[in-house]
Amino acid sequence: MKTTLLKSEDYTRSPWKNGGGVFTDIADAHRADSPAKDWDSLLWRFASTPIVAPGPFSHMPGIDRLQMVVGGRGLVLKAPGQEFDEREPFTTVRFPGELAIVTELEAGPVEVVNLMARRGAVEIELEALRARGDRVLSAGTHLIHAPRGDCSIRLGGESFAIPGGGTLKVELTEQSSLALASGLVVLGSIRLAA
């Protein structure tokens, strides 16, 4: 098990693919053989961003997306013939990056976290953990993010404190157990596609 504490002051910023806003980049991975770290070489990205006005999402062919509101409420994603309801915080929605989506804000700006991945390269999950109790983490990369203040966890028998806004990056070669000790965390999990 390898753990790295990523602090909010060390995160980088990058523009949305369509230029309509700015991501706070928390962690990512790109193809090792690519000369540049760009959208074409992206394997996965975990990021947060404010959505302050209604507007279109970036067109991201070949990218699967998971999204969750972590601040504010009332976000709805509208696509032709369907709707993704994120009105309540900590609800995860999944959609393909090719989908033409426009945001609707029913109660003002929101803050969201996104986990994006190259389809067919990796598999991703995103969930909020609010209740205590053990859960099994499979081999892969896990991002344990503290969106609302400090939190603490136990991982494989060790205790870890995660400051508000921080993220514990965990790389596992075999399964381990995770238990939330205090606070609330968002767990993003990435594993190589079978």
From TrEMBL:
Pfam families: HutD. It comes from the Bacteria. InterPro entries: RmlC-like_jellyroll, RmlC_Cupin_sf, Uncharacterised_HutD/Ves. PANTHER family: PROTEIN VES. This is HutD family protein. It comes from Bradyrhizobium cajani. The lineage of its organism: Bacteria, Pseudomonadati, Pseudomonadota, Alphaproteobacteria, Hyphomicrobiales.
